[in-house]
Amino acid sequence: MESLVDRFRDAAREAGATAGDADLTASGGYLLGRWSEPQRHYHTVAHLSAVLDVVDRHAALAPHPERVRLAAWLHDAVYDPRALGDANERDSAEFAAGLLTTLGAPDEVAADVARLVGLTAGHATDDGDPDGELLCDADLAILAGDPGRYAEYTAAIRREYAHVPDEAFRAGRAQVLKALLELPSIYRLAPLRAAWEETARANLERELNS
């Protein structure tokens, strides 16, 4: 946990935050508390760490990797499985802008990180947005996991939506899977698409068929 807080503090500093170390450390700890809330089974600190690791490995593909790292921290800062539509992403984007402004980040940075967070609602990016592409690809990296890891992911998602009856969950989940499969490419950045696209599509199709 301490090393994760260090990563948040470093990203905020690189993005231009002027708050002191104590405030940055406290903010990182507060965010980890959010990522550890009891309603989370997949959208947890483990997911945050996995997304950050992908961003770190492929940081050279993005012009502003520090903004992508902050967006990774904040993209599920608000997570309520009972929320409707893209409410979680919208609320997380608003929270991101407010927090980063409070920490002294430049207005442009706070606005751009909020924009990146909002992209995770539909994982659709415009051409010429490698920062957004890296964040979305990292967020969806789990889809290219091996069968065992993918099964753990789907089981965790079901636990998050335990309040939804089976029939309704199957219908809703099928919509999500179809939307992902209808994307021209699940992964936008060429190296990640080459490495992950085929496996991800096979996982999604297998789940949809089941």
User: Mean pLDDT, nearest integer?
Assistant: 96
Enumerate how many helices there are, as a single number: 10
Beta-strand residue fraction: under 5%
Q: Helix- and strand-based class? A: mainly alpha
The span between the termini is 37 Å
Strand segment tally:
0
Major beta-sheet overview: none
Order of helices and strands: HHHHHHHHHH
Query: What would the principal axes of the Cα set say about the shape?
Result: globular
CATH superfamily: 3'5'-cyclic nucleotide phosphodiesterase, catalytic domain
Helix content: 55-70%
Q: TL;DR?
A:
The protein has 210 residues and is mainly α. Helices cover 67% and strands 0% of the residues.
Can you walk through the features of this model?
- The protein is globular.
- It has ten helices and no strands.
- The protein has one domain: Catalytic domain of cyclic nucleotide phosphodiesterase 4b2b (Orthogonal Bundle).
- The mean pLDDT is 96.
- The chain has 210 residues and is mainly alpha-helical.
- Helix 1 packs across helix 2 (21-35) and helix 3 crosses helix 7 (130-139).
